[in-house]
Amino acid sequence: TQLLEQSPQFLSIQEGENLTVYCNSSSVFSSLQWYRQEPGEGPVLLVTVVTGGEVKKLKRLTFQFGDARKDSSLHITAAQPGDTGLYLCAGEVLGQNFVFGPGTRLSVLP
Amino acid sequence: KAGVTQTPRYLIKTRGQQVTLSCSPISGHRSVSWYQQTPGQGLQFLFEYFSETQRNKGNFPGRFSGRQFSNSRSEMNVSTLELGDSALYLCASRPGQGALGYTFGSGTRLTVV
Fold first, then answer.
1. Closest-approach residue (CA) in chain A for B107
2. Is B83 helix (H, G, I), strand (E, B) or coil?
3. Count of beta carbons in the 10 Å neighbourhood of residue A88
4. Which of A34, A90, A109, B79 allows an S-S link to B18, with CB 3.0 to 4.6 Å?
5. Which candidate, A34, A31, A24, A23, places its Cα nearest to that of A83?
């Protein structure tokens, strides 16, 4: 059974601060996705990474996939209140379903 | 194009009853997956359907079942509801099994009383 861990579990910061959240596993994944979920809605896909060591940037968000494809990080620069939400990572084992981490609940205060 | 549509959005059922939830995927998406989300367990995989066939199944009791129709629409059914079945049930679609990443619906919030 694949298990994904995320840290921190909760994070409350002021607008303008930087932050990093982590996603770790003992399993190797063929791809890894990051999602953001807002209350009462389904998760929304932010990015997919597939190559070990890959770095992707989406405006103020930077995603990195570990060299061994077992871990990933999400860095947000100059956080804004609109970044508030539950951040989920999900790993895929080829040919099987996605396994989701428990999430990091981020609150950005104005 | 239209997103993933789940109906109903909210549902209250009594313990012992059964319930059917519906999901219409994005047009052209043939793979539909279902997840249960609870505060304690997070997102737990229920099953995935592709071209009307169940491809993967999570570790849930047989009370949880699903199906997919020829137009890719999917339903899931939970029989003999228990209080612990209260959760947000999320449907997600993707073009095919090899496609990366899901598009999720807004979910059905099921409350069992």
1. A42
2. helix
3. 25
4. B79
5. A34
B33 close to A (CB below 8 A): yes
Is residue B102 within 8 angstroms of chain A, CB to CB?
yes
Minimal C-alpha gap between B82 and chain A (Å): 22
CB contacts < 8 A (A, B)? 49
Secondary structure E strands in B1-113: 5-7, 10-13, 19-24, 31-38, 42-50, 53-57, 64-68, 74-78, 87-94, 103-104, 108-112
Q: Is B43 on the interface with A (CB under 8 A)?
A: yes
- B84 strand-pairing partners: none
Give the Cα separation of B86 and A25 in Å (integer): 28
